[in-house]
Amino acid sequence: MLIPLETLAIFIPTALALNMTPGNDMLFCLGQGIKSGPRAGNAASLGIATGALIHTALAGLGLAAVVAAHPVALDVLRWAGIAYLVWLAISAFRSTDQALKPAETRRSSAISAWRDGIIVNLLNPKIIVFVLAFIPQFVDAARGSVLGQFLIFGLILNIGGTIINCLVGSFAGKIGQFLSRSHKIARAFQIATGCIFLGLAAKLAFDRK
After folding, report:
1. Would you say 208 and 30 are in contact if contact means Cβ atoms under 8 Å apart?
2. Which of 88, 109, 142 is CA-nearest to residue 37?
3. Which end of the chain is more exposed for a tag (fewer CB within 10 A), N or C?
4. Cα–Cα dist 15/198, whole Å
5. 128 to each of 87, 131, 161, 177, how far by Cα in Å?
6. 45 and 120 Cβ atoms separated by less than 8 Å
7. What is the rounded distance in angstroms from the CA atom of residue 165 to the CA atom of residue 183?
8. Is 9 exposed, middle or buried (0-12, 13-18, 19+ CB in 10 A)?
């Protein structure tokens, strides 16, 4: 099972750009870093990563089973994912919530921050929906194991997110000041996010052979 370099050349920078967009997981790590220090911030990011791996494995197993029974399901899911990415882009452009503030967290030890990170990620239904919308766009049943490809892409996405969240947790104070300094910064993040989602959806829709 080989994933073409041209596919990775699209997936990796897109995944990195999405990981850099502030979301609930990043703001949770930011809140832990500010309240409990870099160690807790890093532990929170590892907890988020653990939860994300669980989400990815469950989604991959489910997708592999569905595709095995109904091969056309991958194409159906792909187009549903494209539609979802367009909806996410529109939501980002129209959003009036321009606040990027750290999530409310209690002061925690590293172990507690890690555990809470897992819980925060697992209880966020948007994560599993996003995973099922984003990763299948790059999966090709003709290349071999659907589950194997799904897990590889999920691991790449998760590694990038963990690195960025660790940086956020480590430098929480300075990053928190930067994010909350101006609504213009928050709006720029929202517009950038919308452009990423919309551009990816368009490319996947029109370039798909």
Report:
1. no
2. 109
3. C
4. 14
5. 16, 5, 15, 30
6. no
7. 22
8. exposed
| C-beta separation of 101 from 28 below 8 A | no
CB-based contact 164:46 (threshold 8 Å): no
Question: How does DSSP assign the chain, residue by residue?
Answer: ----HHHHHHHHHHHHHHHTS--HHHHHHHHHHHHH-HHHHHHHHHHHHHHHHHHHHHHHHHHHHHHHH-TTHHHHHHHHHHHHHHHHHHHHHH-------PPP-----HHHHHHHHHHHHHT-HHHHHHHHHHGGGG--GGGS-HHHHHHHHHHHHHHHHHHHHHHHHHTHHHHHHHHHS-HHHHHHHHHHHHHHHHHHHHHHHHH--
The pLDDT, as a whole number, for residue 160 is: 92
| pLDDT of 139 | 85
The first and second tokens of residue 23, run together, are: 């979301």
| pTM of this structure | 0.75
| pLDDT in the model for residue 100 | 59
Q: How far apart are CA 196 and CA 202, in angstroms?
A: 10
Q: How far is CA 2 from the centre of its chain?
A: 23
For the chain, state the CA radius of gyration.
Answer: 17
Regions of the chain short of the pLDDT cut 50: 209
Q: Would you state the structure tokens that stand for residue 67, as one six-digit string?
A: 């595709």
Q: Are the C-beta atoms of 99 and 189 separated by less than 8 Å? A: no
CA-CA distance, 58 to 75, in Å (whole number)?
20
